[in-house]
Amino acid sequence: MSAEEPLFRVVRGVPTAEELAALVGAIVVRSRPAGEPAPAPVSTWARSGRPAGPAPGRGSWRTSGLPR
């Protein structure tokens, strides 16, 4: 396969850009090696120990520089 040769082609229909993006995403996920584990989700308990960013709203830019 040469560099100019496409990895896949649409043989029927006219997909939108969003449909092609979904297709590429599905191909990428399916092409992951079977032995490679999926990334572990972060638990709510672990996430609760991380510092939260400043609350959005008026003056949040000012509080973003303050120590937590």
UniProtKB/TrEMBL annotation:
- Provide the GO MF annotations for this entry: acetyl-CoA carboxylase activity; propionyl-CoA carboxylase activity
Instruction: Give the transmembrane ranges.
Output: none
Out of the domains of life, which is the source? Bacteria
Pfam families in the cross-refs: ACC_epsilon (PF13822)
Region of interest (Disordered), residue spans = 33-68
Mark out the compositionally biased spans (Low complexity).
45-62
Q: What is this protein called?
A: Acyl-CoA carboxylase epsilon subunit
